[in-house]
Amino acid sequence: MSKETENPTIVFVTGNKMKLREVKAILGNEYEVVNHKYDLPEIQGSTDEVTIEKCRTAAEIVKGPVIVEDTWLGFNAMNGLPGAYIKWFYQSIGCEGLYKMLAGFEDKGAVAGCTFGYCEGPGHPVQLFRGEVDGTIVSPTGEETFGWNPVFKPNGFEQTYAEMDDDVKNSISHRYKACMKLRDFLQEKARQK
Ligand SMILES: O=c1[nH]c(=O)c2ncn([C@@H]3O[C@H](COP(=O)(O)OP(=O)(O)OP(=O)(O)O)[C@@H](O)[C@H]3O)c2[nH]1
Ligand SMILES: [Mg+2]
């Protein structure tokens, strides 16, 4: 009988249990995703800058290889805002407020995205892996179990993220796309060892 090989471990530093759940669902067959729960400070800047700083800090805390992730939601009519600041907009005005923000605009287009950062340890550079999905902002539809899922309808689908089965969201989402790039990178790195 062949001995099952153990999956390699990834330490994901995040304070967001829904992100963790999705990353486990997406990468769980290939990696043991271990959470280090910590709400990392977030600087003002581009999503790349935010992710790099989060990842550097995470590597210092864990003192070893880590991943972090930063999510954004950008409205086309607002040149990509709120972007990385979506968390504060969502917390202040909720899904209904996000929908109403575009009331004065014809263009309801939006991009949902996230960037994973990987860092091998303190002092090492941060590698970035980005995933994006184009969609539209709609009146909140579906259960509000994860952030702004009820207002984001990806192009080519009839349902918002919130209405989709988890399996469907996790096979098409911004997080899925970024995770696949991260996985390819980690696999290539492992092959080179
Ligand atoms: O509807 C959603 N579908 C998603 O797929 C999704 N991913 C993240 N979010 C929310 O968008 C903000 C990002 O902020 P964020 O990246 O700084 O996350 P966070 O602070 O919660 O966790 P972390 O920084 O500790 O990892 C936070 O409000 C998250 O809850 C999502 N909402
Ligand atoms: Mg955060």
TrEMBL record:
The keyword Manganese applies. Its cofactor is Mg(2+); Mn(2+). Coiled coil: none annotated. Mg(2+) binds at residues 42, 70. Binds 1 divalent metal cation per subunit; can use either Mg(2+) or Mn(2+). Signal peptide: none annotated. GO terms for biological process: deoxyribonucleoside triphosphate catabolic process; nucleoside triphosphate catabolic process; nucleotide metabolic process. The keyword Nucleotide-binding applies. One of its GO terms (molecular function) is dITP diphosphatase activity. GO terms for cellular component: cytoplasm; nucleus. Its EC number is 3.6.1.66. Homodimer. Belongs to the HAM1 NTPase family. This is Inosine triphosphate pyrophosphatase. It comes from Schizosaccharomyces japonicus (strain yFS275 / FY16936) (Fission yeast).
